[in-house]
Design a protein that fits this description.
The complex is a heterodimer of chains A (314) and B (697). Chain A is of the alpha+beta class and 314 residues long. In chain A, 68% of the residues lie in helices and 10% in strands. Chain B is built from 20 helices and 19 strands. Mean pLDDT of chain B is 80; it is low at 258-299. The chains are: A alpha+beta (314), B alpha+beta (697). At the A-B interface, strand 4, helix 5, helix 7, helix 9 and helix 10 of A face strand 18, helix 17, helix 18, helix 19 and helix 20 of B.
Amino acid sequence: MRFFKNPNINFLKYRKLFVSLSITLIIACVIITIIEGIEYGIDFAGGTEVAISTSKPIPTDKIRSAVTKSGLTGVEIKSFGEENQFLIRTVESANAPELISNALTQAFPNEKITILKVDKIGPKIGSELRAQAFWAVFLAVLVMLIYLAFRFEFIFGVGAIVALVHDVILTFTIAVTLNNLGIVNLEVNLSILAAMLTVVGYSVNDTVIIFDRIRENKERHKGMNFIKLANLSINETLSRTVNTVSTTLLALLSLFIFGGPVLQGFAFIMIIGIILGTYSSVYIASAFVIWYMEKVKKIDLESGFREVIGAKAE
Amino acid sequence: MKKYFGKILLVVVPVIAAIVLLYPTYQASKLEEKEAQAIAKAKKASNSTDSLAIIEVFQKQYGEALKTAKARRLKLGLDLRGGMYVTMEVDVVKLIEETAQSETIDEIFKDVIAKTRKEAVKSDEAALNIFLRNFNNIARPQGKSLLNYFDVGDLRDASEEKIIASLNESIDKAIDQAQEVIRQRIDQYGVSEPNIQKQGSRRIMLELPGVTNQDEMRSLLQTTARLEFKLVRNYKEIVQAFYKIDKMLSNKIKAGKGLIEEPIVELDTLTTDTLVAEQPKTKQDTTKTDTTKAKNDTANNPYAGLPPEEAQRRYALDHPFTTLFSTFFVPGQNQNIVPIYYTSDQFPDGEYIFRIPKDSIPKLQVLLSRPDVAALIPADLEISVDAKPDTRLKQRQNIEIFDFYALKKEPELTGEVISNARASFDPTTNQPVVLMSMNSDGAESWARITGANLKKRIAIVLDGRVYSAPTVQSKITGGNSQITGMANTEEAHLLEIVLNAGALKAPVQIIEERVVGPSLGEDSIRSGLNASLIAVILVVLYMMMYYGLSGALADFAVILNVSLILSVLAALGGTLTLPGIAGIILTIGMAVDANVLIFERIREELNNGRSIRSAIDEGYRKALSAIIDSNVTTFFTGAILYFLGTGPIQGFALTLMIGILGTLFTGIIVTRAIIEIFMAKGATSFDFGQPKIKQNN
């Protein structure tokens, strides 16, 4: 089987359009994130969170009024996977699980209330984990820059990192925005962090494969202008890109659909991240290197571009 | 064929390794089913001795196998099996408060403490620094110094620096004490496979599978320890009590009331002879052991003339209680200890030693808790078991034998009087010792107690378990004691921790607590497994569709990779968590990518008109740099996560890192070996899913 027979698509023709699109999107999402704020999950915010299930579905309002009567403050209630499962969160309280369980048993005497899980996180731990998460992402990016600078020309390393930062910021802010809009339940917690770090790995992986091809083609087609070289390399790796993205997405989609509430957030972030990572390898990483050569190094890359492409397409 | 032997090995060895390493996991789950059946049966049994007997039958048959299988199997994280996860931290503020001399605490000090507590909850600053700052701001203007509140012992060189240094030392020691106390309590509570780890210098992380009673566990963890000194009363009266217990129990059994056919313990599991022979030195350095075979030479031996096995069987039947352990008589200082049998109610006056193998301790405790047994133990005595097995025996023979003692119920002294304890070496003998000092109140009582109990043993009891029972050599005045007879420095260090637990309450607080109910655990493992299975099937189908036979080969490599991840995890003693499963899924993606890169390259080379052989060579060669680069960068991410992250994140990072190594091995080396083996059979083409082209050879 084969999807593409000698593909020759001029991917980089519209790079300026896509770069502008990316920049606009980042600005928009960052602004929304700043205005709306980030909703931290229990891992980072601290507090007590109790997951319960009831034998029959109960409207969230009724659960809320029952729990509020127990005297707990700052109560938040969300549905959790199934219709009869709820996440109840309150500010730090030593015996919140017992209070909640008692209140619900009183309010709904005919229902069987089961406590699925309890998380109690002290405020200190929460802020420590936030700092830890930040350092983890920062260090990962730094180490990659160093590695890539060794393996490729320095500017390629920078290009990969620019694409990476693009992916991380967009994935994160899109997730936060979707959560704020109430479309998906994506509070920032530890599994989201794990997903973000996986996105970091994947994004660089994808970029590296195209850069690796550019490096190889540079030797083979000495003197070819860089835009053509990049386009050729993207085309040559196209069927790899499509196959890898498809298999990974297949795996992630099954996690998202069948993985249950705990894996869902993780899978969703990964799906966004992988699509962005693939896109940014072409339109951010390669486009950045081209921009650098044209604008900073003042190399004329455009001239002769069309005719060379034309000659090959024939 | 010979030429390809190495390549065949490359494929076969990892497959066998995966099977061997994962077999215990399979075995353990089978045996656990059987164990659950035995326990269910035991629960139906009419009395506790019967249920013990049922469980013992299971233990005898499968116990060892289950233990080994459990130790080697792949462990599931708490998120998958349910349980309680707790992080505890030294409560420095409380520690400062408790270290201050209680009679000096006034409103000013309380004020400082209250303010410190409030700030410490939120701040990242060390609590001691917050305390000192508040002390300077509030107490100092009112003419107070740290010397007003804290005892430094010697007044001549008392200084604030010294107090701060000693507070710092207490804080550093507190976590070790808390860990020891908690470990012991968890052990006694009966949590299976608990994981207790120190995190950094101020925290303890606990993973307690299967625990759902949070209230009980919380109070167990947060209650401070109780250290007591109790007199050892291993004398004739307790041995006589044991004799009566034997009589009473064996009569009940014979009358059919105990309902157990077989004796609770077979005598051969407790061969006192070997115990004696193998243990030339006991804990009490003053006692010597009988190295000759001590035969039962009591005058009126009721088993005389019987064959040895029959005699043993009868003896065990008549002595259901005392056959659980071995009893020795200590005739006097520097004399050999003599094994004692309960054949008559005549026992010599003097001191006794009781030793029990680890497996028999639960039975001993069950029997001791029976009201009819408890009634026969003298009212002022209690039985306490050692906290740890005899070190020398454990090192030499790898068997776990515990001493137990009859202690006077009323403690002579409690741990608050200890001001400091320190493990050290005796300069003359170079043996480990522990130096213990007491405050003035304690020293006074201690002199009286030691004076009244010369050449007798005093047990150091923490939370009801005996850590040491040294013999008093002389009257100790002045409060400074030296404890000798430890087997090694670790034992001395443990005793230091225990004694300091009396001096200092080592208050700890829970700062993080996660409980996963068993039903959620079940749900998440089911959906996690289902989702992973579907993911694998989809990926396998896609690869076979696109790349044909070589796609199937890649699938084999991926599945082998996943099995290897699980095996390595099992071998390293790691746990599989939900994020870990996510890591495996990501690995599947990366592993497929490696093969996609290779196959695409081979197809390209075939398109360029190369022969199949050279296309394969070139394909692998050229794809390698991209595969290495991408995997190395992802490996870095994994490594950073592993070292910076905690708990669940680490699980994810570990599987990811193992998976990447697996990908490089299975994706590049194993698939290549298989292709070579195929080619060796004279194949002229190989299906990479490429459009069929007739080849001219």
